[in-house]
Amino acid sequence: MTTSAAPAATPSLRKVAGLALPALAVLAAEPLYVLVDTAVVGHLGRTPLAALAIGGNVLTVAAWLGIVLAYGTTGRSARRYGAGDRAGAVAEGVQASWLAFAAGALIAVAAQVLADPLASTLAGNNPDVAAGAARWLRIAALGAPGLLLATAGNGWMRGVQDTRRPMYYVLGANLLSAIACPILVYGLHLGLIGSAIANAGAQTVSGALFVRALVVERVSLRPRPEVLRRQLVLGRDLLLRGAAFQACFISAAAVAARFGAAALAAHQVALQLWMFCAFALDAVAIAAQSLVGAALGAGAATQAQALARRIAAIGLASGAVFAVVIGGGAGVLPKLFSDDPQVFAQAMRAWPWFVGMLPLAGVVFALDGVLIGAGDVRYMRNLTLVSALCGFLPAIWIAYGLRLGLAGVWAGLALFIVIRLVGLLARVRSGRWVVVGVLR
């Protein structure tokens, strides 16, 4: 561990909030749109909502890749920005955008080929749900390049501590899509297909706005193989970490599907609310990535450690606020998405676990941001793999074997959060993540 002789003052709560609140708007925009989409489709009936659950879970692979790119880019860009090299920080974003476009195009093509077998596997013995999910997925996946370009753009902008422009870009695109979704679904009678068109449109518009932001920076837009290789090495560990998350969520959807369409639909409602809360809580992590990365880039190790403690406390308080809101809304929130009494009854089985996890998740997500900003992604990779392979996945398949229903699935998610919390607290206390200087 390397320390600095004269660390700068720890950023105030106002500074953290100044980065976190615009980031909150960006992070909340996508899951909020998905909640609108879920509500619109939910009133088409149980089968379309279950189909959206399957298709949406598969498409989260694109969102996961985008988050990998954004988080890796934020850490590298923030280090350069902290060292006084803004042009170098933006150049990291250019290279990340090339990776984003290539990955998004690959996902869009793969979805056209694999939609049917993936949907059939995840839907179990329900061919109507599988058919709807495959149709939705083929169209929605066309927005994957835009989605990944937008997340890469968010990454470098967070690194240079510009969280306001991304807020305008993402909110504008998702507002347009939220207006278009009910018009396409109900006004033009396109049903589930209208949802997919609105989704792909929002992602494409958002991606185009972030490409424009790179162009106006007047930096070279050419690919640089040496930087791409370094980003891929960093991305490898984040990718494996993300793969563990995706294995968990896709497996959870598959297990929920085997408890029936009502359970799967309820899981979709609870999961999307959970994702909304998670993305909102991640705003604190975004501030941590930017501030911790900049502090370490500037050689201020003591400042970075103080930031970690402050960020963890803010995460705990934020998670507790969400727990109060979600717990108090138990009798109302699920009914906004489906008026099916069986879906509501199933949602109530997941709700206590959902609410109880939120304060713990606030700390987990905050400390994730600290370690990502520090570039300590190898440890995060190992911890997430252990949590998934030894906690979440065994728990939910045991829940299936013992017929514990949706409560068992969400108990598995709670176990996943608890294992990660213990590991993150131990790592932060050890101080081994504190390494100053620019990442090469």
TrEMBL record:
InterPro entries per the UniProt record, alphabetical: DinF-like, MATE_fam, MdtK-like
GO molecular function: antiporter activity; xenobiotic transmembrane transporter activity
Keyword Transmembrane applies: yes
Keywords: Cell membrane, Membrane, Transmembrane, Transmembrane helix, Transport
Transmembrane segments: 52-72, 93-115, 135-156, 168-186, 192-215, 238-261, 273-299, 311-330, 350-371, 383-400, 406-426
CDD domains: MATE_DinF_like (cd13136)
Main location: membrane
Entry keyword Transmembrane helix: yes
UniProt GO cellular component terms: plasma membrane
Membrane topology, as annotated: Multi-pass membrane protein
Localization of this protein: Cell membrane
Record-stated family: Belongs to the multi antimicrobial extrusion (MATE) (TC 2.A.66.1) family.
Name of this chain's protein: MATE family efflux transporter
